[in-house]
């Protein structure tokens, strides 16, 4: 069972979303920053579960930086499920893969990559867009491509130096 239910939003929506579910709130939205993470967090009790509203989420690890861009990237690619009579968007696997690689969570990224490899073509458009908006170290880029079984010209995650044909100065 999940420890909590994460709801991701761009920072511009955090206060409005908090207002809609304020009666379930355990705390108020607050900026949370560590060496690895930056976000605006708030917590809610929902039918025995803890729900976490995560706004403006950014991950930094070993030279890589990934920002969760819900409106611009992820919502358009989200698979929708019905919970009762409510349509709920699920976080795309492409996000989950990059996010969990940067968090060094093999228990998650290995299963995610295996699921993605069964129909990689479905995930490639979002992965390409993520690769254009985040900054991955060469090690992370090669690792993610390797998890997906991509190499050579098929690679999705190329760093800017590689694309420009040399070193950045």
Automatic annotation (TrEMBL):
Gene3D superfamilies: 3.30.460.40
Protein name from the UniProt record: Uncharacterized protein
UniProt superkingdom: Bacteria
InterPro entries found in the cross-reference section: NT_sf
